[in-house]
Amino acid sequence: MSRKVSSFPKARRFAVVRMDPVAMVEHLQDPLATGAAKEMRTQKYLVYLDFPQDLPMPDSEYCRYRVNVVATELRPAVPEKGITRDMVIPIYPNTQHARAGTKVTVTPAFPFSNCYFWIDGRLSLRVRVSRDRRYDNDKAYQLSIPQHVSLSDAFEHDFARINRFWRERRTMYAEEHIVEVSSLTTFREPDDVFFAAMSSSFYTEESALAEEYDSSPDFSPERDSSPSSTPPVPPSITDLLSMNLFGWDEDPSFQFIPLVDLWLDLDEHLTESSIPNPVGLWKEQEKVGL
Predict the structure, then answer these.
(1) What is the pLDDT of residues 144-174, one digit of tens each?
(2) Of 203, 219, 241, which closes a domain?
């Protein structure tokens, strides 16, 4: 039976990527930008393709993917966000910092024994179309659907820790704010002070959607009750269209999404000792964006 190959890699595959900064600035037609891009020394990074963000057409030059970076060391701590170094998930055969009941197993057997997923390690990439390259998705290192789902669930404990961190931080902020306003002549109840201090920054998603729906010029109870009126577009559909899956809408932010070449044959491009720290990929992206 012949293997299935395609112009784009499928989701749930591990891949090696390398950014092409020169191609990213070509559209600027700026000799200085092109010269600076040529001076950059980019590296090959190990990533996991979480899901595609585009529906590529035959003439598409690239397809966006949401990816998780893969590292050989613990995650850098971000104290101001409540993120600690141990918020990682090992990829078997690595068992360091393993969680009870969680074992991320790759098919076929993963060629590296020292790799981790990081919490908050996602970013978007544009995978460039190569007319002379086809991706052998069946042969690629991949996670099964159950393993993919379990990966999403594996960080639940860490997200709970981060939520506690933010709750405690909000409580501390509210208490400090109460002390500040207590010197005012007009007294306000503590709950009111907390609400006033936090409501501008902490809306629930449901509240935001409801506000958008109710404030829509196409929505009114009177019009909605009329059988001949056109119903408003539900926010969920609006959100879907805003993802620009077909690339119909020009989006200037796309030029800052790393444009990369991608390979699925991991061990042809990396070894355990040569897998770089993925922080370098973010730094490369920032350098092109300046």
Answers:
(1) 999 999 988 899 999 999 999 999 988 877 7
(2) 241
Assess whether 131 and 183 both reside in one domain. Answer: no
Domain that holds residue 172: 163-241
Under a CB-based contact definition with an 8 Å cutoff, are residues 53 and 124 in contact?
yes
pLDDT digits (tens, 9 = 90+) for 184-194: 444 333 444 33
Instruction: Please report where in the chains the tokens 């070449």 appear, as a residue.
Output: 261
User: What element of type H or E holds 59?
Assistant: none
Query: Are 72 and 196 in the same domain?
Result: no
At residue 136, the 3 state secondary structure works out as: strand
The CA-atom distances, in angstroms, between 32 and each of 18, 36, 253 are: 22, 6, 21
Answer whether 87's CB lies under 8 Å from 43's CB.
no
147 shares its domain with 71 = yes
Q: Which of 248, 194, 190 is nearest to 54 (CA)?
A: 248
Render pLDDT for 80-120 as a digit per residue (tens, 0 to 9): 999 999 999 999 999 999 988 889 999 999 999 999 999 99
- Residue indicated by tokens 């009329």: 226
Q: What is the pLDDT of residues 254-267, one digit of tens each?
A: 888 999 999 999 99
Q: Please give the helix or strand (H or E) that residue 19 lies within, else none.
A: strand 14-19
